[in-house]
Amino acid sequence: MSPCPVCNSTAVRIRWTGLGDRSFATTAELFDLAQCDDCGSRFLADIPPLEELGRYYPDDYWAGPTDQATHKQAQGGLLEAYRRFVLRDHVRFCGNVLKAQRARGVAVRVLDVGCGDGSFLEALGEKNAIGMDLGMAAVWAVRARGFRAVRGTLSDCPLADGSFSMVTAFHFLEHVHPVGPILEAAKRLLAKDGEVVFQVPNAASWQAKLLGRRWHGFDVPRHLIDYTAATFRRTLEKHGFQVVAENQQCLRDNPTTFATSVAPRLFPPSRLARGGKAEGLGATVANLTYLALTVAAMPFTWFEAACGRGASVMVHARPRR
Ligand SMILES: [Zn+2]
């Protein structure tokens, strides 16, 4: 078996076998998840080659169905209002970075990599921000919100080097391997004094331990590497970043990761990708049930994050000079 892709240790073993795609059912294939006993990271035992990864993503992954004519999202207003509300941790954390940049006289310009439906860009409210995503449905959805969006990813980026004061990527880096060239590409896109905010699931969280192979943070087969908060920080440092701040409280992701682990078929993007309706009584019942599960998980997910074992970790870092 190949060594740990995070720390290079050979103390690796198969932790779980026979894991399927629980949330999107894109494949009937089963996968093994390996664990590194030195650093605690987990990873797909056989990481598929890059050109094969596309088939594990539904067409409108993280964008949801959009109206054919307007590309506006067909999802109900309730879900949209909920999304805006729960993005507050992302907006606060990134808003603080931008506020400090403005105080230093930096010209603020944001790129959100893996931008999905663009709800973060809209909530952040930076009009000249750009979204980038591999999915065309996401690109259209972001443009329908009034933002510039390009199709691409960091390793194949159509944007000019040195263009951005902040590059954000939420729940993106666990989908890529090897991560080194991706982090280098992010650095190249930064203007002088530019900074990054990255977020990944935390494999050392209490909910990961409690839920084991059912934990949605492993999201087999789309998550190739499952970092812990500690190994994620070390990975950034190894690739020339200085970590400035970290946050594990995340209202959007931590309770929903718990809820999705318990009821993967109720997770709205998953339900829609499986052909579920976006509107109507059935959709409302499903969304409200999922919301109730999410709200029920909030006290526990707040507590685990307060103890440094949150379900996700958001890191503010800058290239080391
Ligand atoms: Zn390791």
Number of strands: 11
Shape: globular
Gap between N and C termini: 37 Å
User: pLDDT average, as an integer?
Assistant: 92
Q: In percent, how much strand structure appears in the residues?
A: 15-25%
CATH topology-level fold name: Rossmann fold
Order of helices and strands: EEEHHEHEHEEHEHEHEHHHE
Number of domains: 1
Q: Which runs of at least 5 residues are low in confidence (pLDDT < 50)?
A: none
Structural class: alpha/beta
What is the count of helical runs? Answer: 10
Keywords:
binds zinc ion, alpha/beta, seven-stranded mixed beta sheet, Rossmann fold
Draw up the topology in text.
Elements: E1 12-19, E2 31-36, E3 42-44, H1 77-86, H2 88-103, E4 110-113, H3 119-124, E5 130-133, H4 136-144, E6 148-151, E7 164-170, H5 180-189, E8 190-201, H6 206-211, E9 225-226, H7 229-238, E10 241-247, H8 254-262, H9 268-273, H10 281-306, E11 312-319
Parallel strand pairs: 4-5, 4-7, 5-6, 7-8
Antiparallel strand pairs: 1-2, 2-3, 3-9, 8-11, 10-11
Bound molecules: zinc ion.
Residues 4, 6-7, 9, 36, 38-39, 41 line the site of zinc ion.
What does this structure look like?
The protein is of the alpha/beta class. It has a single domain (12-319), classed as Rossmann fold, CATH 3.40.50.150. The chain is 34% helix and 20% strand. The strands form two sheets. A seven-stranded mixed beta sheet has the order 6-5-4-7-8-11-10, with helices on both faces. A four-stranded antiparallel beta sheet has the order 1-2-3-9, with no helix packed on it. Strand 7 (164-170), helix 5 (180-189) and strand 8 (190-201) form a beta-alpha-beta unit. The protein is globular and about 50 Å long. The model has no long low-confidence stretch (mean pLDDT 92). It binds zinc ion. Zinc ion binds next to loops.
